[in-house]
Amino acid sequence: MLAALAGVLAFATPSCAPSGGFEEALARIDTAAPAARAGLYEAASRKAGSARDQLRLVSRARNENDAGLYRAVAERALAAFPNHPSLAYACAAARLDAGSPGEALALFDDPLAPGDEPELYALAWISEARIALREGRMPPDPGPASLGLVAEALRAPEPLLVAACFALGRSDVFLAERYLDAASSLGASAPELAWELGRFDLVLAAPLPADPEPGTPEAGRSARAIDLARRADAALMSGDIELSRRLHLALLDEAPASSWKSWETLALLAEGWRPDLDASHPERAKLLGPVDPEELAYRDARLASGFGELPEVALARAARLSRTGEAVEAMLLASSLGKRPDALLISAAARLRGGDPSRAALDALAALEIDPDDPEVLDAALSMLVRSGEPWAAVLAARRALSASAGGEAGWFAGALEAVATGRLDAAIDIIEARGVLDGGYASTACLALLLRETGRRREAADRWSLAARESSDTGDKTRFLVEEARDLIASGDSAAAKAVLTVALDLTPGSIEAASLMAAASRP
Questions:
Q1: What is the DSSP letter of 34?
Q2: How far apart are CA 218 and CA 368, in angstroms?
Q3: Whole-angstrom distance, CA of residue 510 vs CA of residue 107
Q4: Residue 132: is it exposed, middle or buried by C-beta count within 10 angstroms (0-12/13-18/19+)?
Q5: Residue 411 binned pLDDT confidence (cut-offs 50, 70, 90)
Q6: Rounded to 5, what percent of the chain is helix, strand, coil?
Q7: N or C terminus of the chain with fewer C-beta within 10 Å?
Q8: What CA–CA distance (Å, rounded) separates 61 from 384?
Q9: 402 and 409 Cβ atoms separated by less than 8 Å
């Protein structure tokens, strides 16, 4: 009797082996009509006594070719055994099949890991990324390492490009460039990203893109023109002047009226401007190349006739006229733009080159009056004030700008002046030599000479004026710096050295009244 009862209990009680009830539930699923199977799967799930039972049930559901049913069965199985990796994998696959790749990715935070199932993770990520891009969202950021797994699993470069973008967004330029290189090795072309990272070689190697799609901001524009413009700039920044010139000419053939910038670039190249590839900011340029007067005149004339009504073109042409010694024409063109800081600063430079330093200083002060909070305006105006022989005006302007900025950074010279005002001359020297040389070139050297003079260190100031004169390529500035050097040499008691310096200044500018008057003063017994 007891044995018979034990047998009945053994048959009715679930065990670790598949229960009879579960097996019968599977059999009913196999023989039922498709429309009735959903309820049978739910009943079978309740009878499943182990993870193995649930896996058998999920496997049957996957073969039904019904994504909704497959997902429902997999979700119930994972709910019953939430930490089981095989069930989590099946649930992720079911969510992906049901069109929910974001929810599939959520399982890779726990209990799955991207490195455990890289192929499924890659499929889920790429599906979610495409949805995000269509909706105007950024793709999910699982971290560059996981994106590397995606790229390796798919043998596709797109995840690596996304990883590069995320790294660049975190200001990790080194890592961004490594991912870009890896994507390029897989055949990717991302000229915009390459440009952001300064990889001009990859910009030049990129294939010609397809025409912009309708509805995009660049729709209707020539894809070839867009690409030629980028390549021409990349060639210029790489130092390949001839290639840049050819590409700009090709761009003008493709779209002659699309932009004034190619005409301006060709004019600058004819003037002798070349990128300073040794500078920390390679977009900076110096007058390093040969001058082609005929080419320069032709490009400037085409620029004026085709785009002369644009303020940017007028500014560029005024600056060029000032540099080439046509001060009156430069001032007239700059004045036609009204009272705007950039035009006033160009006018100041033209007046300084034309021998009118007092009016140059007034223009620089007027530029500061209009926009005292712009660091670029501040730096340029202070440099102009120093070069025009108005050191105290520069000091007052800088202090006012510092006050107006409410403690913000108002330019390297202003910061140096603040350090001097509080007795920290060494700190001022550090600011100018660390930041000013990068931002202001020889003008920063002249500023340092001024600060040294104001603190009574006249001999050191003379040395800095001498260095500024050597660094400058402008004859007017060279003469002015040499005059200031002589002034400090006379103040430090070395009249003989001052006369030698003034002799050079008068050779450069024979009509310099300042140099002649100082020579007379230095020659007195």
A1: G
A2: 37
A3: 81
A4: middle
A5: low
A6: 70, 0, 30
A7: C
A8: 79
A9: no
Q: Which pLDDT score, from 0 to 100, does residue 258 have?
A: 67
Type and span of the H or E element at 524: none
Which amino acid, 101?
Answer: P
Exposed, middle or buried by CB within 10 Å (0-12, 13-18, 19+), for 425? Answer: middle
Does the pLDDT value for residue 14 go beyond 50?
no
Burial (0-12, 13-18, 19+ Cβ within 10 Å), 292: middle
315: left (phi over 0), alpha (psi -120 to 50) or beta: alpha
Tokens of 473: 């390529």
Tokens 């020579």 correspond to 519
**Cα dist from 394 to 72, 360, 361, 405, 473, whole Å:** 75, 13, 9, 16, 23
Spell out the alpha helix ranges (H) of 34-157: 37-47, 51-62, 67-80, 85-97, 101-106, 118-134, 144-154
Name the packing angle between helices 375-387 and 341-353 (round to 10°). Answer: 20
pLDDT digits (tens, 9 = 90+) for 144-160: 566 666 666 667 787 77
pTM of the model: 0.52
How far apart, in whole angstroms, are the C-alpha atoms of residue 141 and residue 129? 10
DSSP state string for 305-348: HHHTTSHHHHHHHHHHHHHTT-HHHHHHHHHTT-S-HHHHHHHH
Mean of the per-residue pLDDT values for the chain? 78
The answer to whether 267 touches 296, Cβ cutoff 8 Å, is yes
Identify the bridge partners of residue 275 per DSSP, sorted by sequence position.
285
Question: Is the distance from CB of 514 to CB of 476 less than 8 angstroms?
Answer: no
Per-residue model confidence (pLDDT) at position 94: 93
Tokens 């501040």 appear where?
A: 378
Euclidean distance between CA atoms 117 and 14, whole angstroms: 33
